[in-house]
Amino acid sequence: MKVILEAGPFSVHRHHGKLYENISLVLYENDFVHLKGPSGTGKSTLLRQIVGLEKCPAGVKRILNGTAHPSKRLFNFRSKCVYLDADSPLIEGSISENLLFPYKFKINHHRKPVITPKKILEKLGLSPKLDTEVTNLSTGERERLCLARAILFDPQIILADEPFSGLDPESFEKAFSLLYEFSQKPEKAVLCVSHLELPQKSRTLFLKNGKLEELS
Ligand SMILES: Nc1ncnc2c1ncn2[C@@H]1O[C@H](COP(=O)(O)OP(=O)(O)OP(=O)(O)O)[C@@H](O)[C@H]1O
Fold this sequence. Notes:
- The protein is an alpha/beta fold.
- The chain has one domain (32-51, 80-215): Rossmann fold (3-Layer(aba) Sandwich).
- The chain is 26% helix and 28% strand.
- It has helices at residues 43-50, 75-80, 95-100, 117-123, 139-153, 169-183; strands at 3-14, 17-28, 32-36, 61-64, 67-68, 81-84, 157-161, 189-193, 203-208, 211-215.
- The strands form two sheets. A six-stranded mixed beta sheet has the order 6-7-8-3-9-10, sandwiched between helices. It has a four-stranded antiparallel beta sheet with strand order 2-1-4-5, with helices on one face.
- The longest helix is centred in the C-terminal third of the chain and has 15 residues, at 139-153.
- The mean pLDDT is 93.
- Residues 14, 19, 37, 39-45 line the site of adenosine-5'-triphosphate.
């Protein structure tokens, strides 16, 4: 199995004590890893530490496809390893403007959406048209738009934090299939935090009492 990402060791201390300590993780090509654990154990914090959105201890390594990314310069890393937050921000404007927003950054000028924005909305069963203002979308529609934007951008890794929480069963099925399909492409992997049962996964990791364990 080809290693896509090696990251760690991560530790977090909150005012009430240690949340977790010395957690490292490896993602392999085509991994779809389900990260579970009781509420408040630090699953979101761990995802945020991986992409450097949360303070990390000195000495943390992030090796993506054999290339080490130093903690002080993570812009390039974050364009290849995307953090998809449950409340990912949308910009003011239309669905189309939001889907194409990441390409406005100079570092992404060379990138092109993998499929058309129209096609990805169809796959997700999102009925609003591309010129619909995002302020007119429901919570579940906004959530699916954020997922569509991440997939369209074609990173190597998606770290998805509760990406299905606001979805009805039919929308969940479509959104899950799309994310799983993404993970099965060459040199891709997904780490997905979810309290839901997921229909398919390659591995399950459980975060509890400050430790990350792989469930068999
Ligand atoms: N920025 C912050 N500053 C201080 N404490 C925080 C911060 N963000 C989260 N916490 C605390 O850290 C702990 C872990 O939070 P986190 O959101 O990572 O847990 P989680 O396992 O993802 O929870 P859930 O399953 O409920 O989403 C919680 O006690 C939370 O209150």
